Amino acid sequence: MFGDRLRDLRKGHNLTQAQLAEQLEVSASAIGMYEQGRREPDNAFLAKLSAFFHVSTDYLLGIPAQRELSGLIDGFTRRLEEQEDLMFRGRPLTQTEREKLATAIRVAVAVSVPADLEGGTR
């Protein structure tokens, strides 16, 4: 379960095992072993993953299978800003246009989320 979740999150963020390993300051082989279920994470590594991917440790462990919306939005907008070959209506978007689009998405979410959900926990 944990290995599948880790692989799905990593691929969902368009990261290789080596890239994720570098971000988390572990070896690429450790990431591979976690994903294959040949190694179990300790609490410190779970906390690091949780913060990096903006998901709860419960999600990582499969209890229950819920993801924090803010984490999904953060990941999506980050990828949007980084995607250099992104096109709209047949025309490549500039870095500034991609950043504005990501900001617009964040603003739309901010005004759409009910006030009682703001500041909720993961």
Describe the structure.
With 122 residues, this protein is mainly α. It folds into 2 domains: 2-61, Orthogonal Bundle (434 Repressor (Amino-terminal Domain)); 69-117, no CATH class. It is 62% helix and 3% strand. The chain is built from 7 helices and 2 strands, in the order ααααααββα. It has helices at residues 2-12, 17-24, 28-36, 43-53, 57-61, 69-82, 95-112; strands at residues 87-88, 91-92. Strands 1-2 form a two-stranded antiparallel ribbon. The longest helix is centred in the last third of the chain and has 18 residues, at 95-112. It is globular, with a radius of gyration of 16 Å.
Keywords:
122 residues, 434 Repressor (Amino-terminal Domain), 2 domains, two-stranded antiparallel ribbon, 2 strands, globular, DNA-binding, DNA binding, Cro/C1-type_HTH, Helix-turn-helix transcriptional regulator, Lambda_DNA-bd_dom_sf
